Amino acid sequence: MREGDRAWRARKRGAAGRRIAAKKAAQKRIADEKAAAAKAARLAQQRKEAKAEQQVALATTADSENSSIAASTGKPAKAETAKGEPDDEEEKVAVAKDPGCKQFFPSVGMTLSVPCQ
After folding, report:
1. How many structural domains is the chain composed of?
2. Structural domain that includes position 109
3. pTM of the prediction?
4. Average pLDDT in the 31-58 region?
């Protein structure tokens, strides 16, 4: 073999190696871009689902504001037995769970305890 042949073959192998490396890098870049796009789509779907759940929760909260529980007077209910006599233990539990006054704040989307007026 001639000296020029060896140099030519070495250059050819080097160029082919560079082409293969460039092709692999391009494939990896495309795969990374696809993975990033899939992740962005998945996150957008999760945000959309979370927003829908939040709206359902707000609607449920608004519906429960009109219930008789939300309009409680703040006085503890008297627990009575079948004979009509108050049971001391149940009455103590009812007194300890005084709900106080509550007010719905639409900007927050929650019902919060506030001082009674």
Report:
1. 1
2. 3-114
3. 0.37
4. 90
